[in-house]
TrEMBL record:
Listed transmembrane segments: none
PANTHER family: SLL1037 PROTEIN
Pfam families reported in the protein's UniProt record: NMT1_3
Domain of life: Bacteria
UniProt-recorded name of the protein: C4-dicarboxylate ABC transporter substrate-binding protein
Species in which this protein is naturally found: Micromonospora sonchi
CDD domains linked to this entry: PBP2_TAXI_TRAP_like_1
InterPro entries for this protein: TRAP_TAXI
């Protein structure tokens, strides 16, 4: 009786001059890659197991989650044998931890959460710079809190433990000499909104892309004030020169007085050990389906290939680099 031979599909990477042919080739290559990934199975006569992509996001009412949910829908629809799902998390710091421990494949983070020097071979790298977070300091319109220093002695939500908000706020309170003068509560966005509505806190911080849905809803239902933080950008930049920049929150966003605040880049990260062709396809869909992503949240519509490559201090994944290189006009 003869031995049944297993035929493993080859992994090739042929480039075509015509973009439509190139994309078709990439999908074919991706199918081959997914079939030969360890633990997936490489036999023609055995059904391939789906490749799971877990996307670490944040609060269900914040931008990361809306963005991630839309991205998961696109990946499930357009990548053969991929099963993408969204993880609800405390956001940036937890997302980076999940990627580092192998509990997620993709994840969003603020740039100021990342180490200034990730080393020569980081286990987590970048797919794209996706948009900028703006730091919100939210209170009620009749509150005595009108400036950052008015938080002295007050109850303030500084963001959930493990969030990028917590990191940014900690640095902000330090440069404002308010470290030990604010009663800090580690609440996530949804709990912060409830606590402010119920008078359990005097204000809350949240860092997110415009508009933050939970903030918009609160402002619609309650007289609201967002505190201007523009003067604190320069002090923050002294210790983090490549991260923080001033950005405006215009009246049109929440229907209240415009302010200037502190902005911070957001990145979509990926585990460095994911296959190049898979990450290339994820990057392609991220860029080519921007209008669909923007329908889920306007912040996603601000991406572009030109801005996406600015992911310092992290390098781009080779698959992302290949997409940006090949997609140049």
């Amino acid at each position: 009786m003869g031995v049944r031979r297993r035929t493993v599909l080859p992994v090739t990477r042929t480039r075509y001059a015509a973009r439509s042919r190139r994309h078709g080739s990439r999908v074919a290559v991706l199918v081959a890659v997914l079939l030969v990934l360890p633990g997936i199975g490489g036999c023609r006569d055995e059904p391939a197991q789906p490749v799971h992509i877990r996307i670490a996001t944040g609060s269900p009412t914040a931008v990361y989650h809306a963005f991630g949910q839309s991205l998961a829908t696109i990946l499930n629809r357009e990548l053969p044998n991929v099963r993408a799902e969204v993880l609800v998390t405390a956001a940036s710091m937890e997302n980076v931890r999940l990627l580092n421990t192998g509990a997620a494949e993709l994840g969003f983070t603020q740039a100021d959460v990342l180490p200034a020097d990730p080393g020569p071979d980081p286990p987590v790298v970048a797919v794209a710079r996706v948009y900028d977070d703006l730091l919100h300091l939210v209170t009620t319109a009749n509150s005595p809190v009108r400036t950052l220093t008015d938080l002295r002695g007050r109850r303030v939500s500084v963001g959930a433990a493990g969030s990028g908000t917590e990191i940014t706020v900690s640095r902000l309170l330090t440069v404002a000499n308010l470290d030990d003068q604010v009663h800090r509560l580690p609440l996530g966005l949804d709990d912060s909104v409830v606590a402010l509505r119920n008078g359990e806190i005097d204000a809350f911080f949240f860092s997110g892309g415009l508009p933050v849905r939970a903030v918009a809803q609160f402002a619609q239902d309650n007289p609201t004030r967002i505190i201007d933080l523009g003067e604190w950008t320069a002090p923050l930049r002294r210790g983090n020169p490549e991260v923080y920049v001033p950005r405006d929150v215009p009246r049109s966003v929440y229907g209240i007085d415009p302010v200037t605040t502190v902005a911070n880049p957001n990145y979509l990260l990926v585990r460095a050990d994911l296959p190049e062709d898979l990450v290339r396809e994820v990057t392609r869909l991220l860029m080519e389906r921007r209008s669909e992503l923007a329908a889920a949240h306007p912040a996603a519509g601000r991406m572009s290939p030109r801005s996406a490559i600015a992911t310092s201090p992290l390098p781009l994944h080779p698959g992302a680099t290949a997409y940006y290189r090949d997609s140049k006009p």
